[in-house]
Amino acid sequence: MSTTVFVSGATGFIAQHIVKLLLENNHKVVGSVRSAKKGEELTSSIKNAGLSADNFTFEVVEDIAAKGAFDEALKKHPQVTVFLHTASPFHFDVKDIKKDLIDPAVEGTTNALNAIKEYGSSVKKVVVTSSYATVSGFGELVTPGKTVDETSWNPITHEQALKDPMAGYIGSKKFAEKTVWDFIEQNKPQWQVSIINPVYVFGPQAFEVKDKSKLNTSNEIINSILKAGKDKDQPQQFAGYFIDVRDVAKAEIVAFEKEEAVDQRLILSEGPFTTDKILNILKKDFKQLELPTLDESKKINWDSTESIINNEKTKKILGFKFIDLEQSVDDTVAQILND
Fold this sequence. Notes:
Layout: E1 4-8, H1 13-24, E2 28-33, H2 36-48, E3 56-60, H3 71-76, E4 82-85, H4 97-119, E5 125-129, E6 147-148, H5 158-161, H6 165-187, E7 192-198, E8 200-202, H7 220-231, E9 239-244, H8 245-257, E10 265-268, E11 271-274, H9 275-285, E12 308-309, H10 312-318, H11 325-338
Parallel strand pairs: 1-2, 1-4, 2-3, 4-5, 5-7, 6-12, 7-10, 8-9
Antiparallel strand pairs: 9-11
Helix pairs in contact: 1-8, 4-6, 9-11
């Protein structure tokens, strides 16, 4: 049965996969975009992929942090029954942490929730894309070896979030997610909510890559290894958890379709990764590439930097197997090389 789904921030890395999967499943999609140009580009990508562009419309929301940002878009589409909120800043190129990261995340979420309350009379399900950043502490706030699960919260405070852009991003995700739960408690809306908390998101772009010089923040970890090989350089080394973007899109749809997902926080993580692990996959599967040799002294000991994720509850609710690291890396790199 066709459902009309509103996807905020529809041109984002994760959001494009959600749009694609919704259209493949014969849903109608209304996407919010920052400009008509971006909306037209996405419509063109949808057509080029052989999907039904007739089932996709876009609404321009220039600034999600502006009061009433989503009001007009929802007024125009009273048929919307599901609202997927993915729009939020994820970059570290900021001058003012509060103004550029924290406020847009919190205000954007508040505006979406208020618009649904006032003008989303048919909305039954809301899924908010949050982040693993809300679950576990990072940097000075991490407790290596400590187990975290769907009930855990990052202890970061507003004051700590203003320290640097990374802390600002982490804080923005926590404060935005807290805003959702507070809103539900205070307003007791007619719709039900689920929260998606992905870790680093790898995987190919949903549509053709127009600009390979800089990919989304997570995929730049993979791309930076390829660039370092070409430039005879050292990539920055990372360690953390990953999930494939196609699994995030699937989880978003399961979250509004399955009753078990209501009022749940879902941690999307397939497992750990390090730059070293990714490099070994590339050496095995892309023998033609010129790849860097990592500086052994800069290798990150994953056990000393990360909490341990227990997301068995999430996996049980979702009911599908996640894509593994090798496939995720291989598909990402194949697209970079072939497009």
